[in-house]
Design goal:
Elements: E1 4-13, E2 17-27, E3 32-36, H1 43-51, E4 58-63, E5 66-67, E6 78-81, H2 93-103, H3 108-122, H4 137-149, E7 155-159, H5 167-184, E8 187-192, H6 195-201, E9 204-209, E10 212-217, H7 219-224, H8 229-234, E11 241-249, E12 255-258, E13 263-265, H9 268-274, E14 281-286, E15 291-294, E16 302-312, E17 317-322, E18 327-332, E19 343-348, E20 354-357
Parallel strand pairs: 3-8, 3-9, 6-7, 7-8
Antiparallel strand pairs: 1-2, 1-4, 4-5, 9-10, 11-12, 11-14, 12-13, 14-20, 15-19, 16-17, 16-19, 17-18
Bound molecules: adenosine-5'-diphosphate.
């Protein structure tokens, strides 16, 4: 159906604001790609350049091999779903979905068939005669998606489509959009600031910061092998914990990461990679689930810290701790007993530790 290519794409707004910097990406046919990053990192601008709603300052965007830089939005074979739904308030659900087809001169019978087909997929067949104000937020969002489906576009673009829904509806619509992607076997690009949406829906995630791509990877890889501290901290809740320290030779061979308050032996599987960094300042990244409370802090690979806050969530508990130099969070079993002020020993899964260059913050593991 559709392959989308972005090559050396820049967006520079008046006043020299570089919102997107040298963006390079090949999106495969039927792929579900999610652009994720904090507010203002350039996700929407990139999507809007694909849609044709924003001029491309530099670089090339092609859809199915055709450069679309100067092609108007209506001729790009794309459909976009917006955060605010953008429905016509005075039209019925049916007419909202039929409108773009009517403009294109599609025949009445065909329009009828496509609208009913889309309504069925989205389970909104019973609401076709209603107006948007007579629908819930979730139903309105379905209509907005339906309006895109009836056009049978080569590429679907979603700009934070779930942000206006309550938490429960977001979880439900998330699964529905994933299902829809499989059903339609369509190419989709989805923008969100929510890393959970990105992780749960994407075939491939593009993490952005300050207009630049930080990493492109499948969700599992992004979580297991973050390219830098930004990605490590952005993907995962609670986020990855970071400790600055120095790498040094251990007595009797091997390497030690020295935080100042505690030391961690470097796992044998990582020694070779880290050896050239001995003597330098590094950042050690530890996921909250790789810290396990233990009785004894004397073993190598264990750190001791003071409990500051205990947050039970039900299935697991987040313990906020402090080493004296660094705050961090451990994700532990709910039956773990501790209180603010307690000293807690935690065994570190050193094989799962991440190390980053102290200066450029890029991963060296
Ligand atoms: P995101 O979608 O990641 O939140 P945007 O793509 O909306 O980010 O914006 C990226 C950057 O471009 C922001 O710094 C924003 O302020 C700036 N920006 C967006 N639209 C305009 C505009 N029309 N004029 C000037 N700057 C803009």
């Amino acid at each position: 159906m559709a392959h989308v290519s972005l090559q050396n794409v820049w967006k520079i707004y008046p006043g020299d604001v570089a919102a997107v910097r040298d963006f390079n990406l090949e999106i495969q046919d039927r792929e579900f790609t999610v652009f994720v990053g904090p507010s203002g990192c350039g996700k929407s601008t990139t999507l809007r350049m694909v849609a044709g709603l924003e001029e491309i300052s530099r670089g090339t965007i092609s859809i199915n091999g055709r450069v679309v830089n100067d092609v108007p939005p209506k001729d790009r074979d794309i459909a976009m779903v917006f955060q605010n739904y953008a429905l016509y308030p005075h039209m019925t659900v049916y007419d909202n979905m039929a409108f773009a087809l009517k403009l294109r001169g599609v025949g009445k019978a065909e329009i009828d068939q496509r609208v009913h087909e889309a309504a069925e997929i989205l389970e909104i067949s019973d609401y076709l005669a209603r107006r948007p104000k007579e629908l819930s937020g979730g139903q309105r969002q379905r209509v907005a998606v339906g309006r895109a489906i009836v056009r049978k576009p080569a590429v679907f673009l979603f700009d934070e489509p779930l942000s206006n829904l309550d938490a429960k509806m977001r979880v439900q619509m998330r699964a529905e959009i994933s299902k829809l992607h499989r059903q339609l076997a369509a190419t989709m690009i989805y923008v969100t600031h929510d890393q959970i949406e990105a992780m749960t829906m994407a075939d491939r995630i593009v993490v952005m910061k300050d207009g630049r791509i930080q990493q492109v990877a499948v969700p599992g890889e992004l979580y297991a092998k973050p390219a830098n501290t930004f990605v490590g901290g952005f993907i995962g809740t609670p986020p990855m914990n970071f400790f600055t320290g120095t790498l040094r030779q251990a007595e009797g061979g091997g390497l030690l990461f020295d935080e100042g308050g505690f030391t961690l032996p470097v796992h044998p599987s990582q020694r070779e990679r880290l050896a050239p960094h001995a003597g330098r300042e590094l950042v050690c990244g530890l996921r909250p689930e790789h810290l396990e409370p233990v009785a004894d802090s004397a073993n190598p690979g264990t750190l001791a810290a003071t409990v500051e806050v205990v947050e039970p969530t039900g299935p697991e508990t987040f313990i906020h701790l402090h080493t004296g130099r660094h705050p961090f969070i451990a994700r532990v079993a709910p039956e773990t007993r501790c209180r603010p002020g307690d000293k807690l020993a935690l065994a570190v899964r050193t094989d799962a530790a991440h190390f980053f260059d102290g200066e450029n913050k890029e991963s060296i593991t």
